[in-house]
Structures are given as C-alpha cells and as structure tokens.
Amino acid sequence: MTMQQQEPTAFRPATTHSMAIVSLVLSILGLFPPILPLVGPIAGVITGMMARKEILARPDLYTGEGIARAGIILGWVGIALTLAVCLVVVLGILFFSISSSSSGIGPSFVITVQP
Known about the structure:
115 residues; 2 strands; rod-shaped
C-alpha cells in the first residue's frame, strides 16, 4: 500500500463502543423476567464497566460513555428488581405456609397437660 491509500488514524471518526450497546441491550432484556431474569443484568453491568473503562482510556477511538453508563444503571436496577421479586416470593411462601397451618387446613397437633 502506498501512503495515499492508508487512512491516518487522526482523521478516523470515533465510533460507539460495541460493548456499550451490548450492555444496554442485555440490561433492558433483564428488566423483563421471562427473557433474561438475572443473567442479563449481571452481564450488562460487567460489559458496561468494561466498555466504560475502554472508552475513558481511548476517547479518540470510542464514544458511548452515556450508553455504557445507562447499561450499568439499568443492570443494577434489574438485579435489584429480581432480588426483590425473589424476596417477595419467599416471604409469601413462608407467610402462606404459616397461615395455612394455623387455619386448620393442614395437620395440627394439640398437646394437653393434665395435673
């Protein structure tokens, strides 16, 4: 190649980092429980942090810090929502099992003490 055919790196426009886009997509998909309940947000946070680190290290090559930040934030929101739903389900199961056993539906034992 001659010098005229090579494009100088100084004139190459910065592109949006692909991992920032992946982070945002995974985090959004993680907000919908049937699609990617916990894997999506975790992967979104990890890829968003990796993309943000590379964007800050090479601002001449990459853009998309806002997209990566949005992916990280939505990823944490997805993780929190998933954990909150799990907590509500567990508490609901515990509450239902306690209330159903005291309502006479299940087996009950009575201990009497005679003097």
